[in-house]
Amino acid sequence: MIVVLLGPPGAGKGTQGERIAAHLGVPKIATGDVLRAAVKAGTELGLEAKGFMDRGDLVPDAVILGIIKDALAQPAQAKGVILDGVVRTVPQAEGLAAVARELGKKVDVVLAFDIADDALIARLSGRTMCDVCQTPYTGKNRGEKCAKNDGGTLVRRRDDEPDAIRTRLKAYREQTAPVLDWYVAKGAQVAHLDAVGSVDDVLKRALTAVGR
Ligand code: AP5
């Protein structure tokens, strides 16, 4: 089963993606995590992506399509995969559809996270993240240790500063929101998810939406 998580920055895609993946017993891929790991490692991919990410702009489609192709070809994903923030433009959606087709698969469900801007801004302004496993936290300060005991320390993301949040919201409205219309036009199963409420309540809605 391929599940695409679509939603604005801070909607809870990472938080729910990890839980949905654990529930279904499939891996989760988040292009944001892949890119941040590349930035941290100083690879060619990371050097190319860093400026776009720090500003809150989208990384070019050609870069993302390379990640999608590599990721979907991994044997670990035979049973399915949760794609968190992987598709943010119509060309990326077209590219994902083509790669999936080559592998005899298709996108089964698109989960669209619905949440108002003021709630997103509040979430992002209070977020910290583990610098090892990238788990997001609320109500914890930078410098604290990650609850997963992986040696990680909590940091603030550069793109959670106000200017970058504004740019990311603009990119979502202008470039990513049309992807939902594209999926609807293609006849995909698009389920809207009320992303406000406790993490457990949102997870229950998400699992219902994917038929579990
Ligand atoms: P990415 O890391 O994917 O950022 P994003 O899409 O902006 O999403 P976030 O990670 O900020 O938020 P989220 O929805 O995962 O929410 P989270 O669960 O953390 O991408 C970063 C950058 O990489 C992009 O800006 C772009 O430059 C580049 N990029 C990545 N993919 C790309 C692509 N395909 N094409 C082009 N460029 C790409 O939750 C947020 C906070 O809220 C946390 O603190 C969390 O604890 C809290 N929270 C979660 N759920 C709840 C709840 N129910 N109630 C209260 N608080 C909650």
Question: What would you say this structure looks like, in words?
Answer:
The chain is of the alpha/beta class and 212 residues long. A hairpin with a 5-residue loop joins strand 5 (127-130) and strand 6. The model has no long low-confidence stretch (mean pLDDT 95). The strands form two sheets. A five-stranded parallel β-sheet has the order 2-3-1-4-8, with helices on both faces. The chain has eight helices and eight strands; from the N terminus they run E-H-E-H-H-H-E-H-E-H-E-E-E-H-E-H. Bound molecules: BIS(adenosine)-5'-pentaphosphate. BIS(adenosine)-5'-pentaphosphate is lined by residues 7, 9-15, 30-32, 35, 52-53, 56-59, 64, 85-86, 88, 92, 123, 127, 136-138, 159, 168, 197, 199, 202.
